[in-house]
Every structure is written in C-alpha cells, then in structure tokens.
Known about the structure:
MetI-like fold
Amino acid sequence: MPGGVLFLILCTISAVGYVMGRRKAVSVSGGDSRVMHSLLPYHGWNVALAAFLVGLSVMVLWSLLRLLFGFTDPGNNIVSVLSLAAALLAGWTNYARIERNYRARNVVELMMKGILIFASSIAIFTTIAIVLSMLFETTHFFRDYSWTRFFFGLKWSPNFSGNSDLGMLPLLWGTLYVSFIALLVAVPIGLFAAIYLSEYAGPRLRAVAKPMLEILAGIPTIVYGLFALITVGPILRDYFAQPLGLADSGSSVMTAGIVMGVMLIPFVSSLSDDIINAVPQAMRDGSYGLGATPSETIKQVVIPAALPGIVGAILLAASRAIGETMIVVMGAGAAAKLSLNPFEAMTTVTVKIVSQLTGDTDFASPETLVAFALGITLFVLTLGLNVLALYIVRRYREQYE
C-alpha cells in the first residue's frame, strides 16, 4: 500500500476514533460533563491521538529500519498491516478505558507534550543527519587524497582523468574576499538605516520604510545574480576596471560583493533595529537629562548598549554571505585564484561544490568527493560564526539589562 494512502487511512481511523470516543463519553456521563474527570472532547482526542501516533510510529520505525539495515517489504504490505493493526489496537484500548474517573485530559496532555518534543527534535536530528552524511563521504575522500594537500594547497585544478590539484585555499580566499566586500556594503548602510528608523523616523515613515527595506530580503538570489550580471558588472567594468587598467571582465569579486551586500542590508538593518529598540528608554532619558543631544546619546549610550546584539547580527549576515551561491556564479565568475585585485574574476567554495556535483560524475572519484570535504569545511566555518555570534550576545547583553 502506498505511504500516502496509508497516511490517509490513519487520519480516517483517528477521525472515527474521535467521534466514537466523544459519543461514549456522552453516553457514560448522560450528557453532563461535570460528572466526568475530563471534559468530553478530551476523551475523543484521547482515542484519536492514540490511534494516529501509534500507527504513525510504526511507519516511521519501519522506514528507519529499512534505511539503516536495508530491510525490504515488497509493496509495503507488512508495514501497512502492522500500522493499521497497531492504530486500531491503541484506539480501541483507550476507547475501552473511558469512564467517569478516567483522566483523559492528562493522557492527551502527555501525548501533546510528546508531539512537541518530537517537533523540537527534528531540527537537531536533521543537523546530525547532515553532518554525518557529509562526514562519511569526506572520510572516503581523504582516503584517496591527502588532507594536507587539500587544506594547504594553493592550486585548484580538478581533472577527472587523474592528477588533480584540489587545494581549497583559492576557494576559501574567494569566499572570504566576496563576503568581506559584501559586509563593507551591508554593515554601514544597514546599521545607519536601523539607527534612523529606530531613533529619528516618525511612526508613519517607519511603518512604510521598514517593510519596503525588508522587501530586499524576499527577492530571489537568482534575481540578484541577474542584476549583477547585466547591470552592476558592466558598470564597474566600463567606469572603473578598464579605465584603471585592472581588468576587462564584468565578472569580478567587486560585482558579486556589492550585489551581495545589497542583499544583506535587510538582515543587518532588521536585526539591528530590533536590538536598538530593545535598549531601555530610561537610558536615553538619563542621557537627555544630562544635556546630551540625540546624536551624542546614540553614539555614547544606545550603540554601546546594543553593540553585542549588533555584532551578532553582523556575524549572522556574514554566515549568510559565506553560503551564497547564485550571486557568485553570475557575478564573480568561476576562476579559482589567489589575488588582491577586486576587479578580477574569482570563485567561492559553494560554487565549486555545485560544479563538482553537476553532470555525469563518478561518486567514487576524489574529484567528486571533494565537494563533501568542501561542504563540511564550509559548515564548520558558518557554525563557528553562529556560535561566536550567540556567545557575544549572551556574554555582554546582561551588562545593560
């Protein structure tokens, strides 16, 4: 039986169980819920949730066993029968328990608590699964390729016929270079916008300007990439790179960095705006009472108080910049090189991950497995930035609360 059909049958059994459980509770109580320990709907939910959760648990358990141990079940017949039987048994067991003193409310609360725990654990389990999947493939890569050549190599030249140079330093340099330029654009503009919206703008202007600024966060990155390719790149080439004799191509680190910085403006401004607004008004009033002007209050009171949160917002924006792909593909090119010229074409780690896994590739070759090594390296880098941001916020925020 297909999984979707089985899930619909479980939902139907649960719905029928709710109706039957509530009807029995009405019959036992004679229509007066005051004689029951729990309200009548709790008895219905007790039967419905028990049937649904038990049946779904059997489905999930069987899927995990198939994934881990390779169990097979042609047509999913066994799991279908077991799931439906377990659901009916659980529902009937809770249906049979319905009486005046049955604590259906406590059971329902316990099941709901379990659902919430499971939902909150999904992110943790997903992160663990992602890390493990990359680690397994990365270990296969380092069996065929030296880790010292990968981490300290200065040349990136994959060749599927053999004799590849897979040094990641040119890719890491391009990633950090583009991200640095993006932050040079996003941090001042985003921070100044946040200060204006929180300290100077009136309610009407703020109600219009803040949503319009946040629209930038909803624009797809492919649109930013097209903007970099068609507009920003040619402008930088014609008016800066060529007149200065630096480069002749519109694809450059500067192109991708500027466009990526525009994309990051709402990340910095929105987070900084919320953090600045969280600074107690009493601190501002105290500064005004001492004769400080609004600008002096912002510089000497508000910004120092909000600085840990602002630094955390900047680090989170940096993590977003490091993981960007489409803007770099269309704006910075695909050349892996070590150069200080911002008008030259370079590439990043994410771009090469995509290129190494695109097309007809042999997943047993180092040239393909290197993508997983690059991925785990990028994961560790962004995770470190996120942890550092959380540490800074939690470490220094208490000084002003």
